[in-house]
Amino acid sequence: MGGTIHAYFDCVSPYSYFAFLHLRKHRAVLATHGVKIEIHPVFLGGINVGSGNTPPWKLPAKARYSEYDRKNAVRYFGLPEFTAPSFFPILSLLPQRAITYIKAHYPASKFEETFLLLWQWLFYRHEDISQPAVLTRLLTEDAGFTAHEAETIIAATGEQKWKDALLARTKEALDRGAFGAPWFWVVREGPDGKEEETSMFFGSDRFVAIIQYRYNNMYDHSDRQCLFPNRFHYIWTFLNLPFDDIKIHPGPLKANELIDSSNNDNKSKDDMTESKAKAKL
């Protein structure tokens, strides 16, 4: 029983933001199953290059679809609408190195709250957090760091130690099969508490978003523990966790009558086909 979800995120990825919020929301219930969450900052640009992947914003068709997909995800998660800034995408090395340094020197709660602010400043405020002056303002105005702490953090982003730390974590993600973000490496433990099996997860299972967009009253809104477009229910299954999947609500029509009607229509068509065949004979 139990395990660890290693989540690899970059602030340039809005889907990393959705995943981060979802994991934080369900951390307590995951803990009751002995499942821990480890958040790892990575450089998505390095993952794309290292894996040979082409990011969506470089392919016009994908970029166009991403706008629809983002709106579906925002609607599903109940978040305020946002748009990518005009200068998107940013080179996320500076903020990702900064958050790597913060993770190593501050409590986990401080690290996570600051990480969330990176997404919020980029996508909601349209602030270019890849610029040292902007990132400094984020740290002092919203994240609660002193001016001296912010100066130390910004200075650390230019030090080889923290460049290497982000690079090492990015390479770890690549070694674990990553080709984008968010990326998940999940460890399942056996009854003895030792590693039993590992698996990787990525992707966009968006049946929930499609149902919500077209048939908003068809599924149960009361329990969203497993409903998430980034395949968290696959992770729950891998970890042998109990959960409820999508519940489709019945509509106003009577299913039996529809099925019988459909069967009768098919039978009539079969009879007509058989009659025509006999006539030809």
TrEMBL record:
GO biological process, one term: glutathione metabolic process
EC number: 2.5.1.18
GO molecular function: glutathione peroxidase activity; glutathione transferase activity
Catalytic activity: RX + glutathione = an S-substituted glutathione + a halide anion + H(+)
InterPro entries reported for this sequence: DSBA-like_thioredoxin_dom, GST_Kappa/NadH, Thioredoxin-like_sf
Domain DSBA-like thioredoxin: 4-207
UniProt key word Signal: no
Comp. bias regions, Basic and acidic residues: 266-281
Location of region: Disordered: 258-281
Record GO cellular component, one term: peroxisome
Enzyme class: transferase
Keyword annotations from UniProtKB, A to Z: Transferase
UniProt keyword annotation of Nucleotide-binding present: no
PANTHER family xrefs: GLUTATHIONE S-TRANSFERASE KAPPA, GLUTATHIONE S-TRANSFERASE KAPPA-RELATED
UniProt family annotation: Belongs to the GST superfamily. Kappa family.
Protein name: Glutathione S-transferase kappa 1
Protein species of origin: Rasamsonia emersonii (strain ATCC 16479 / CBS 393.64 / IMI 116815)
